[in-house]
From TrEMBL:
Keywords: ATP-binding, Cytoplasm, Ligase, Nucleotide-binding, tRNA processing. Belongs to the tRNA(Ile)-lysidine synthase family. PANTHER family: TRNA(ILE)-LYSIDINE SYNTHASE-RELATED. Its EC number is 6.3.4.19. This is tRNA(Ile)-lysidine synthase.
Length: 417
């Protein structure tokens, strides 16, 4: 058993590490059996005083013969510590390529379902200081901007799971020492030393970088500072969009041309990225392409362009952005009474009765005016990529967020956070 002296010797303070989630009722602990996650579990068990109920989740991914035994070891050690534990199994066919990404998605999917059933509010993971350093280096090599170089966030959402990472500032060596003092033998995943993976190659490069003064501690501190800058710039972008941008009921986005031309360069890039995301329903863009588009705007060009699933039309007064049609098929779905879904990443639809939803393909300006009593103010292409809801009789109930019938509520994902 660990003693307070063992924990202090490793320079760790459970109360301080877990303070941000002390007011939660039930939390989850993601424990794979490696040294880092075992240390997370040990530290949580050693946290004295009032704390949330914890449920340990471990996943047998079936990718290695040892996976089942490792999951069983986690269950046994959790029980020794007085913690509830659920062993989850990833069944079905496994991918031949992209195993790490697929396993990650499967892991969060299984844990997310279990957390929902258990009433767990947030998942604690054991990402640590070196993980942060590796992430920053990879993103630097990939050309990330300030947001990406801020690295891993302490709080985030991953695969629809709310995640808290209390160990981001902790060196992995301290965690390994803690596990050793507890007398545990952690599992070892061979993929962690496989240089076929980019993260492993950056991990191998870290000692040399540390000799030059660029160790995990410095990189981690840089991430903290960039996260502050990122948060400030995000707030300024929100203010700018609130003042100068607009989202119409069809999902067409507009921004005042003069305002965006004269905006600070960083705000210009962020605003354009945010508007592209709102118009396309996407969330991942190449920064260099956003910067190139911002450069065309700053230069006063009049142009049309397609980027990241969105169509951009820039004239003298306004920049209009709408969902691109044709390249990626827009979704169609049946709706059941009581069902809520997010359509194309842009509209939230709540159904009180049965119906269908799909793009308003083929709808004309004349038909739009007849249905809504309003003239179409944007491009027809924008209209035809908006959602069209029909009830089970085939009657149109809504176009975009314009409700022209009963039984459906449609709202839009807002432009600002």
């Amino acid at each position: 058993m660990l003693t307070p002296a063992d924990i202090a010797l490793c320079g760790l303070d459970p109360a301080g590490l877990f303070a941000p989630i002390a007011d939660r009722k039930t939390i989850g602990l993601a424990v794979s059996g490696g040294a880092d996650s075992l240390a997370l579990m040990l530290l949580y068990a050693a946290w004295s005083g009032r704390k949330p109920k914890a449920i340990v989740y471990t996943v047998d991914h079936g990718l290695r013969p040892e996976a089942r035994a490792e999951a069983a070891m986690v269950v046994a050690e959790a029980e020794k510590l007085g913690l509830s534990c659920r062993s989850l199994v990833w069944t079905g066919d496994k991918p031949v390529t992209g195993k790490q990404s697929a396993a990650r998605s499967a892991r969060y999917g299984l844990i997310g379902q279990a957390m929902e059933a258990d009433g767990a509010e947030i998942l604690l993971t054991a990402h640590h200081q070196r993980d942060q350093a590796e992430t920053i280096l990879m993103r630097l090599a990939h050309g990330s901007g300030v947001s990406g170089l801020g690295g891993i966030r302490t709080f985030s959402n991953v695969e629809a799971v709310s995640v808290f990472r209390p160990l981001l500032g902790v060196p992995p060596e301290a965690l390994a020492t803690l596990v050793a003092r507890a007398g545990l033998s952690p599992a070892s995943d061979p993929s962690n030393t496989d240089r076929a993976y980019e993260r492993t190659r950056w991990r191998d490069a870290l000692p040399g970088l540390a000799e030059l003064g660029l160790g995990p501690d410095r990189l981690s501190k840089m991430a903290e500072r960039l996260q502050r800058i990122d948060a400030f710039a995000a707030r300024e972008a929100d203010r700018f969009i609130t003042r100068h941008g607009a989202l119409d009921p069809l999902g067409i986005v507009r921004i005042d041309r003069t305002a965006i031309e004269t905006a600070d360069p960083e705000i210009k890039v962020r605003v354009i990225e945010r508007l592209l995301a709102a118009a396309s329903g996407g969330h991942s863009f190449f920064l260099s392409r956003i910067e190139a588009l911002a450069g065309r705007v700053a230069a006063g060009e009049h142009f049309t362009a397609t980027l990241a699933g969105a169509r951009v039309l820039a004239d003298a007064n306004t920049i209009v952005i709408h969902r691109e049609a044709g390249r990626v098929g827009l979704p169609t779905a049946s709706l059941s009474p009581g069902e809520t879904l997010v359509w194309d990443g842009r509209f939230v639809v709540a159904a009180a009765k049965a119906g269908t939803i799909g793009p308003a393909t083929g709808l004309t300006r004349k038909a739009f005016k007849e249905l809504t009593g309003k003239a179409l103010s944007g491009p027809v292409a924008g209209l035809r990529t908006a959602p069209l809801l029909r009830d089970r009789r085939g009657e149109i109930a809504a176009i975009g967020s314009l409700e022209v019938g009963e039984g459906f509520s449609v709202t839009q994902i807002p432009l600002t956070s």
